[in-house]
Amino acid sequence: LLLLLLVLLLLLLAGAAAPRRGPGLRGCPGVPRPSRARRPGAVPPPYPNGWYRLLDSSRLPRGTVRSIALLGEQLAAFRTQDGRAYVVDAYCPHLGANLAMGGRVTGNCIECPFHGWQFRGEDGKCSSIPYAEKVPDFAKVRTWPSCEVNGMLLVWYHCDGIGPTWAVPEQQEITTKEWVFRGQTEHFVNAHIQEIPENAADTAHLTFLHGPSILSGTDLRYTRSKLWDFMKHIWKAEWQPEPEPNKHCSQLLVKHHATVFGKRFSLLDLTVSARQVGPGLVFLIFEHAFLGQGIILQTVTPLEPLLQNVVHKIYYQKNMPVIIPKFILKAECIQFERDVTIWNNKQYLPKPLLVKEDTMIQKHRRWYAQFYSERSLKFMASENLDW
User: Does the keyword Metal-binding apply (predicted)?
Assistant: First the structure.
């Protein structure tokens, strides 16, 4: 069994988890980009209200500006010399220049590269126009509420312009560096954002899609091959929403074990507690009997109505060999890419045909509906997508 485990580790780690998967890369060969090849269905509004990851804090050093596209918007993120990070609309209200393309940080302001207008990060008001005697009171750029938690810069979105109604929780073990960063993966998924967290309530798919051995890979044509049938993953999961004051959160408890030739292989026993916080953040805490603890932070950020940027960042006990979190991340990546194949090619059904055992799916949809408002932007599918 130990030799088999060694072979398993070598096979999985021989090719490290791909750090970046582009749109349409997961799926059957020959299928064009899914967003052009299928009807999306009657999808919910594309941008739920909540916190979304912009970028890692380390990618925004003091005095720098970054251009970011998400939620159908173009934004500029910048960090002042005193360490404060701000997010504003990218386009200068004067003549439309992109503040992130050649703009620079001056004091607590971002300076437009076209005419030198300066806008304060905290409220967006224009504080200086080099050639004007007076700055108009109404001269300002839109600011976005933001925060930095767990090594990430996040931005708050609400279709009605309402400020943050809940805070992003801090993972203490990351802040104290008890758990250290051990790698990440990044995927671009062609689906509505709601499809991704809905998997938590769809416990029936775990056995069928994620039961076959991770050795069988991600191509769904071969995952049920007899070659890898000697190993299976057994899942037991339970999903529940949290009560007030954390109604924006839900909990998924997953117990996993594996069988090899029909015998339980206890070395792969794992308990995962996944906490969904709002529409785009998931905290997956791993606990193993003697391999310790760690967490995968999953962030889902809508770039366009049917294009999601999904990042998984793993932090693990620093006294554990690096190969352990690398193995966990690789295994998680394989299982996730099986889901991506489904998401990239499926249609959203507002009234799916469900059986009694699927009741958690409807419960999840009712819970997730809190992130939409009456004024939420509606998805408008173009009749001709050949543009």
Answer: yes
CA atoms within 13 A on the CB side of 37: 14
Spans of all domains in the chain: 50-157, 171-371
Q: Tokens 């070395």 — which residue?
A: 267
What's the average model confidence in pLDDT over 368-372? 97
3 state SS of 34? helix
Superfamily of domain 50-157 in CATH is Rieske [2Fe-2S] iron-sulphur domain (2.102.10.10)
Task: Report how far residue 128's alpha carbon sits from residue 143's, in angstroms, rounded to the nearest whole number.
Answer: 17
Q: Which CATH architecture has domain 171-371?
A: Alpha-Beta Complex (3.90)
Would the pLDDT of 16 be above 60? no
Backbone angles phi, psi at 280, to 5 degrees: -130, 15
The Cα-based distances of 211 to 6, 207, 223, 288 in angstroms read 21, 5, 9, 20
Does position 364 have pLDDT exceeding 50, yes or no?
yes
163-173 pLDDT, tens digit each: 999 999 999 99
Residue 281 CA to residue 214 CA, distance in Å, equals 25
CB–CB of 110/76 below 8 Å? yes
- CA angle 19–25–26, rounded 5-degree value: 95
Please name the residues in contact with 59: beta carbons below 8 A apart, sequence gap of 6 or more.
66
Burial string for 334-372 (b: 16+ CB within 10 Å, else e) reads bbbbbbbbbbbbbebeeeeeeeeeeebbeebeebbeebb
State pTM to two decimals: 0.89
